[in-house]
Design goal:
Radius of gyration of chain B: 13 Å
Radius of gyration of chain A: 13 Å
Distance between the termini of chain B: 32 Å
Strand content of chain A: over 45%
Strand content of chain B: over 45%
Number of helices of chain A: 0
Largest sheet of chain B: 7 strands, mixed
Order of helices and strands of chain A: EEEEEEEEEEEE
Oligomer: heterodimer
Number of strands of chain B: 11
Structural class of chain A: mainly beta
Helix content of chain A: under 10%
Shape of chain B: globular
């Protein structure tokens, strides 16, 4: 089946630290991959996406590269800010299917 | 801002009651999907509507039902509420043009069942 496994949280970092949140997937087809972010009390916001192998998605200083050989889509940011504190969800979408399949989420807290 | 709106923002119901949640899609989008997010979990797919027809369903019982209207707005109905139905309900709109496009989420409706 299709599934997404994310790095266990919570993750706590100091401001300006380097961030990596690991995400690996299992898919029966050719998925598109997404990172969504959820701020406290809010819905999901699309952070970035990649639709084919070796694509790099980027937004607001965050990056993730679609690695087919390792079935991974790790999220990175070079210098985090307090405002990046949120829950981050990795997700996949199989073309021809209807649903997003989400990981369990990783809670990130950035301390000043 | 995604342009996807949901109402109400919060709702409290008692076990056995029925509830209707509403979603207004982003302009130009023809597909709406509904997800249930339990506390501390990732969202789980309930179902999707495309051009007013159900277009896929997750592992949810029939007491979860939906509608999509000609203006592409949507409703999620849940009958015979159970305590485990307490969750954040998210709708997402997208444009289907032969392939599935990116889904954009609304702010959600938080349902508490007592």
């Amino acid at each position: 089946g299709n599934s997404v496994t994310q790095m266990e949280g919570p993750v706590t970092l100091s401001e300006e630290a380097f961030l990596t949140i690991n995400c690996t997937y299992t898919a029966t087809g050719y998925p598109s991959l997404f990172w969504y972010v959820q701020y406290p009390g809010e819905g999901l916001q699309l952070l970035l996406k990649a639709t084919k192998a070796d694509d790099k998605g980027s937004n607001k200083g965050f990056e993730a590269t679609y690695r087919k050989e390792t079935t991974s889509f790790h999220l990175e940011k070079g210098s985090v800010q307090v405002s990046d504190s949120a829950v981050y969800f990795c997700a996949l979408l199989i073309q021809g299917a209807q649903k997003l399949v989400f990981g369990q989420g990783t809670r990130l807290t950035i301390n000043p | 801002e995604t342009g996807v709106t949901q109402s109400p923002t919060h709702l409290i119901k008692t076990r056995g009651q029925q509830v209707t949640l509403r979603c207004s899609s982003q302009s130009g989008h023809n597909t709406v999907s509904w997800y249930q997010q339990a506390l501390g979990q990732g969202p789980q797919f309930i179902f999707q509507y495309y051009r007013e027809e159900e277009n896929g369903r997750g592992n949810f019982p029939p007491r979860f039902s939906g509608l999509q209207f000609p203006n592409y707005s949507s409703e999620l109905n849940v009958n015979a509420l159970e305590l485990d139905d307490s969750a954040l309900y998210l709708c997402a709109s997208s444009l289907y043009r032969g392939t599935q496009e990116t889904q954009y989420f609304g702010p959600g409706t938080r349902l508490l069942v007592l």
